[in-house]
Amino acid sequence: MTPTRYAFVKANWHSDIVDRALEGFCELIPASQVDVFDVPGAFEMPLLARDLASTGSYAAVTCAALVVDGGIYRHDFVAAAVVDGLMRASLDSGVPVLSVSLTPHHFQETAHHMAIYRDHFVTKGREAAQAALMIGKARASIAA
Fold it and tell me: Reading across the β-sheet that carries 97-102, which strands appear in turn?
């Protein structure tokens, strides 16, 4: 039997932006079917995604984060490690692990940029829900 629950993992860095992805996700998948998990930052998402996917309880696991150049670490390194880890969690578990992890080139914490990314994360959350539903349908047709 195919699970009808979905896991949504969100990083707490820039949560005022990242949390908006969950809003978009729940426009297509009812919140009553979504278990939400918070992690400190993007780097912690792959491990939890793997653990959640391995339970067999979820049709898909979606992870959301905003990885910006903080000047202290290489944000491109973090972003690459996160996306690689999420893909590995998906391939190892056989459960779709989707990424709403964005790495803007020029992010500034201005009201203008914050508003743009808040809106963008709603869209990206909706797209992740569409992807979760679409891949579930495709995999069900293969199994039939």
Answer: 34-39, 5-11, 58-66, 97-102
